[in-house]
Amino acid sequence: MNSNSPTQLLQTGFRVALGGALSLIELLGNSQKRQDNLTQVQQELDQVVQELAKKGELLEREALNFVETLLPQNKPASKSHDYIERASEQCFRQPFDIKGTNLYGFVLEGSLHKLQQLCDKYLNDPANGKVHYRPATHYIILTFGTLESLSSRDKPDRDRGYIDEQEVVIWMLTMVGQQIGPVFKVDRMAWFVPYIFVSNSPALVSGREVYGIPKELGGFQIPPANTEPECLTLHAHTWKTLTAQTEAKWEKLIEVLHIKKNSEAQSPKIWATYNEAVRDIADLLLGDNNTIEIPGLGLPIHLLEYLIEAEVPVVMLKQFRDAKDGQKACYQEILEIPMKLSRFHGGRLLSVGGLSEKFKVSIYNFASHPIVSELGLIRGQMPAEDPINLPVKLAFELNFDFTVEDAKVIWKASEKSSCQ
After folding, report:
1. Strand 249-259 to strand 388-391: parallel, antiparallel, or no bridges (unpaired)?
2. Is 372 exposed, middle or buried (0-12, 13-18, 19+ CB in 10 A)?
């Protein structure tokens, strides 16, 4: 293990000691773990030291966060400046009212390990351990949506009019909580969106600048509401490989095809209420008790009750690249954005694997959009074929209105750390 300075060596030694102490406490309190660790004594010393140092670093972060919570620094609040509006403004003022939303949703199975890596990269690591997000389940949801009307709620942007929109979104449900020693205490749920594609520039700019939503422009084939979705497609600017000679091309990225019905397939189940839709989806994915297990701890959470009774926000990393140094961010914060259902128009269950109606999702592999590998949609080594065909666990359609509210700042980088 290399250290570049005496200070780093001392810090690493301190973290190794912390990690060793925590490991000893865990070992003494868990007989099964003692037995498991006896089989690992042949590990190389360097690997053991690295693992202890990492564990000690996490404990050090938790201690510092705890001290900061007890002894907050009395810093004057930074002054906010009025937003300068342009005549051709593309960034509309929030909050937003969205009406006539129709979603075709397809549930796929990912990897908890890969989903945790996404949480760490975009949420936990930027905040240096001050926030903790974990995947709540290995299921992810791919949605193809049409929005009839998206507009600002408040003047003056309310009087600018509205836009329609098409979008493709990949959703993953996360748990938000605190790491207290070996225990993860769940406080709430939040949706995280690793990929999202939209059809026009106002939707793209407003989403990126206001909330940090990583929207890209896309081209869409999405059938109208309440029809048989035979084929849905997404095209986007992609790079097959990442080299200086690679030109971006407008290519098909995702395709969903309806596989012909089984002759005995039943008619789709109709949902009249939001609660009925959520209950059926949760029952089909999680079983009758609707519980999920916190990875590594085996503590159950009644997910259905939470989704019906609680408001589940969307969490985003909002950041801007520094103009002086392109490797740095001049602004970073983690936001949770409330999205509230205002009216449910109806929905239906389209398929649940088995012998019912089935859909096949095909995702094309591009170096610029490693969707399959990032989400862990394929177990083991990536197959050579392109596209990669994925089974659909469950398919549904929902039609509703909703609002997007002012966000809550969960964490914000200091000016010293992000802008200097």
Report:
1. unpaired
2. buried
**Whether residues 62 and 102 fall in one domain:** no
> Which candidate, 306, 344, 13, places its Cα nearest to that of 176?
306
For strands 96-109 and 358-363, give the pairing.
Answer: unpaired
Longest dimension (CA), the chain: 73
Amino acid at 119: C
**236-268 residue pLDDT tens:** 999 999 999 999 999 999 999 998 665 545 677
Structural domain of 64: 6-69
Residue 85, in any domain of the structure: no
Rounded distance, CA 208 to CA 127, Å?
A: 19
**Residue 204 and residue 316 in one domain:** yes
Query: Which of 118-122, 241-245, 281-285, 301-305 is predicted least confidently?
Result: 301-305
Q: Please give the model's pTM, rounded to 2 decimal places.
A: 0.79
CA gap 101, 92 in Å, rounded: 19
Q: Half-sphere exposure (CA, 13 Å, Cβ side) for 178?
A: 9
Rounded to the nearest angstrom, the gap between the alpha carbon of residue 324 and the centroid of all alpha carbons in its chain is 29
- Would you say how long the chain is, in residues? 420
The helix/strand/coil state of 212 is coil
Do residues 310 and 399 touch, judged by C-beta distance below 8 A?
A: no
